[in-house]
């Protein structure tokens, strides 16, 4: 999961496709993934729970001064000996408008205006 988060953060869409299950990869296009990576800044990942084939996490994304959160329980399946991301259940999360003096969601401890603010 952390490696997929890093891939979203760095725009490594080939890795994202390679770590998706066969069925999921069929429904994804590299172009869509590139747009997602380009639109949002993936600034922080909180892993809440995990067991063998499930990871519950909150990914923190920035779009301008909007703080988006993806709260998901991801299910992984083993294909050809490797764990692949298959499906996920999303929980509703609010979109938070950040003020310049708020703490940055990347958890740097700095104010937003001195960190990820554009
Ligand atoms: Zn920051």
Notes on the structure:
It is a single chain. Strand 3 (66-79) and strand 4 form a beta hairpin. The protein is globular, with a radius of gyration of 15 Å. The protein has helices at residues 2-10, 13-18, 22-27, 30-39, and strands at residues 41-50, 54-63, 66-79, 82-91, 96-97. Strands 1, 2, 3, 4 and 5 form a five-stranded antiparallel beta sheet that branches. The chain has one domain: Nuclear Transport Factor 2, Chain: A (Roll), CATH 3.10.450.50. The chain contains four helices and five strands. The protein is α+β, with helices and mostly antiparallel strands and 118 residues long.
| CATH architecture field | Roll
How many domain units?
Answer: 1
Low-confidence segments, given as residue ranges, are none
Structural class: alpha+beta
Main sheet record = 5 strands, antiparallel
* Helix proportion range: 25-40%
Question: Strand share of the residues?
Answer: 35-45%
What is the count of DSSP helices, taking H or I runs of 4+ residues?
4
Identify every distinct bound molecule in the structure, by name, code or SMILES. Answer: zinc ion
Cα separation of the termini: 27 Å
Choose one word for the global shape.
Answer: globular
CATH class label: Alpha Beta
User: Oligomer, anyone?
Assistant: single chain
Whole-angstrom Rg: 15 Å
How many strands in all? Answer: 5
As for the CATH topology, it is Nuclear Transport Factor 2, Chain: A
Average pLDDT across residues? 95
- Following the backbone from N to C, one meets helices and strands in this order, namely HHHHEEEEE
């Amino acid at each position: 999961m952390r490696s997929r988060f890093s891939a979203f953060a760095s725009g490594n869409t080939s890795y994202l496709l390679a770590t998706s299950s066969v069925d999921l990869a069929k429904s994804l296009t590299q172009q869509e993934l590139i747009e997602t990576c380009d639109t949002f800044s993936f600034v922080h990942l909180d892993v809440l729970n995990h067991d063998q084939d499930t990871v519950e996490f909150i990914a923190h994304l920035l779009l301008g001064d909007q703080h988006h959160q993806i709260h998901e329980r991801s299910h992984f399946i083993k294909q050809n000996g490797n764990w692949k991301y298959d499906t996920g259940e999303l929980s509703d999360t609010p979109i938070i408008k950040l003020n310049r003096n708020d703490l940055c969601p990347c958890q740097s401890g700095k104010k937003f205006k001195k960190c990820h603010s554009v």
